[in-house]
Amino acid sequence: AQSVTQLDSQVPVFEEAPVELRCNYSSSVSVYLFWYVQYPNQGLQLLLKYLSGSTLVKGINGFEAEFNKSQTSFHLRKPSVHISDTAEYFCAVSVPRGGQGGSEKLVFGKGTKLTVNP
Amino acid sequence: DSGVTQTPKHLITATGQRVTLRCSPRSGDLSVYWYQQSLDQGLQFLIQYYNGEERAKGNILERFSAQQFPDLHSELNLSSLELGDSALYFCASSPRGLAGFGETQYFGPGTRLLVL
Q1: Residue ranges of B 23-52 with Cβ closer than 8 A to chain A
Q2: Among A86, A103, A106, B44, which residue carries the largest CB count within 10 Å?
Q3: Cα angle vertex B40, ends B75, A39, to 5°?
Q4: A–B: how many Cβ contacts below 8 A?
Q5: Among B58, B60, B37, residue whose Cα is nearest residue A41
């Protein structure tokens, strides 16, 4: 079965500082990887996803993530954060249809709360 | 705004009661997913429907059931409620129900359920 580990439950940073939110996954087959953001009192919104091709994926709001197959990681980065980036960030994995144990569901990590301070 | 609507936004009820949560997917999306978000369990997939048929099942309790209607809206029924069922319940939709192919899921704002 697939699983996702987000190593940091909370990450405080100052405005304009760089940030990296870590995500590691466990799977015996190839997977697709996602980062979602949840702003306070809102639903989840897709930031970016990795399906295939270039391992560096660019998303919305200046975020990017790098897929590292050997490290089974998909860390999210932003070079300079803003107060408005304060939110909870979720890494998720899905198994492509046809792969062993393929399903339509997303498996989410526990989330990382990013707090950007002035 | 994702285009997915959920009602009600908040629900307070007592143990042993039954409630129904409603979800309308984005226009044109055929698949609906239900998730439960709680402090201890995180975000857990419950069940998926595609064009009226159940497609995938996750960690859904037997006390919970769902259906998708011909107009594609979906309802999640929670019965014999317990304190531990207090959580945020999200609905998501996608065009062809192909999260396994990397299809994006669009999430609604959620229904916050409090069981007293």
Answers
A1: 31, 33, 42-45, 48, 50
A2: A106
A3: 70
A4: 69
A5: B37
